[in-house]
Hints:
By secondary structure, the protein is α/β, with parallel strands linked by helices. The protein folds into 3 domains: 5-69 and 168-334, Phosphoenolpyruvate-binding domains (TIM Barrel), CATH 3.20.20; 78-158, M1 Pyruvate Kinase, Domain 3 (Beta Barrel), CATH 2.40.33; 339-470, Pyruvate kinase, C-terminal domain (Pyruvate Kinase, Chain: A, domain 1), CATH 3.40.1380. It has helices at residues 17-25, 40-57, 170-181, 195-207, 222-226, 228-234, 242-248, 254-268, 290-301, 311-314, 319-334, 339-348, 354-369, 382-389, 403-408, 426-441; strands at 5-9, 30-34, 62-66, 81-84, 89-93, 103-105, 120-123, 128-135, 139-144, 148-151, 156-158, 186-189, 214-219, 237-241, 271-275, 306-309, 373-377, 396-400, 415-419, 448-453, 465-470. The strands form 4 sheets. Strands 1-2-3-12-13-14-15-16 form an 8-stranded parallel barrel, surrounded by 7 helices. The protein has a 6-stranded mixed β-sheet with strand order 6-5-9-8-7-11, covered by helices on one side. It has a 5-stranded mixed β-sheet with strand order 19-18-17-20-21, with helices on both faces. A hairpin with a 4-residue loop joins strand 7 (120-123) and strand 8. Helix 12 (339-348) runs antiparallel to helix 13. It is elongated. The two termini are 20 Å apart.
Amino acid sequence: MNKTKIIATIGPASTDKEIIKDLILNGMDVVRLNLSHADYSFCMDIIDKVNELNKELNTNVAIMLDTEGPEIRTGKFINGEATLRAGEMVKIVKEEVIGDKNAFSITVPQVIDYIKHNASIKLDDGKIELKIVDKTADYIIGEVLNDGIIRDGKSVNIECSKTKIPFISKKDREDIKFANMMNVDFLALSFVSSSDDILEVNDLLIELGNDHISIVAKIENELAIHEIDEIIRVSDGVMIARGDLGVDIPLERIPGIQKMIINKCHQKGKVSIVATELLSSMESTLRPTRAEVSDIANAVLDGVDAVMLSGETTVGKHPILALQTMEKVIRSAEENIDYIDLLSKAMRTEKQDATGLIAYSVADCANRLKANAIVVPTMSGYTARKMSRFRPSCPILALSPDISTVKSLALNFGVYAQKIDELNSFDKIIKASTTKAIDVLNLEKNDKIIITGGYPLKEVKHTNFMKIEEI
């Protein structure tokens, strides 16, 4: 069992139930559905298949829905496209028009009011760049900096602009209601720029009576980087979405930003996810590049909680092989993780309370005793998340009678969550923890486990015991 979790996006190449089953059997922890491309009927079909497979395989694969976010896209063009030449001028107009090489419209015309002279606008994920040279109340004029073909519905990225566009669009509001109806486990929010965006979605979930869905903030622009501490504070996790981020900022900055965000998430006990082009070459080939292998390994060595496959499993020719490759790279990289250093970093920023001190002691004892597992009976998942933050070298087996808690732990480093019957005595907790650990982790005689949690389970809100057991 690898400790670093894998998210796989489902698309045309992976909709078949047998392929999803193979993805689960080969290590997929979370299914991602991208609402920028997938409709509700597609999502419902995949969620039904995953739920069926969870029952068949006795697994707990979780579901993540990814919102479209406040994206700005090009309008329609004559014959669907226009060729822009370097040195030419092109207008971006507020009025909805059928575009050509001289002028085109965008899906959020009011953003034109906030664009400044000399601002940079990147079209179609940065394939074409414009520099704004003039502006009126009705349009802006941009100088084309490089040749390219622009088509209907392509992305428009505006240089570090706070545009006052509502974060939750009408579509996103309906998508969040759909996520609530389908009882998904994670909601990934696109184009977050401040903590207020997260809190707005959280308020909507409260209105809907949902206290289960975990919110993952996608970091895709400069504004979010400036606000990263507050975004981490109010989120359950952060995704470093390097695709759109690499359009908004210089590519050479991304590795440092990735390391910074992983470290900050680790300090605050929040999930970190690295996404985009981890194995993009395997969309068409059977082997990854050496750079891709190093990319995954370095994220793992930095202590990331999860890595994500996108095009590799949605449209790639080899979705199963891509996931198997990622699993192998993770397994090898985890052998070289400096667990003592990660434990020390976590302890330096830990609150001095009972839960934190006991969790640190458990992780430290597990490392020193070379324990085979830490077992955490839990109602809310709080102790399991705390243990994950301390990055022990052995697996963390979380046991809960609440399936929502079990699935909420799907992204936490090193945590393997299992549903159990409700336990109402300390002796039953110890016995069930030992039995489940032997069963799930194939433990043998003389193997050691450490059991920790809060007792009584339903009454105590903090960790108050640890017990070392020898099989």
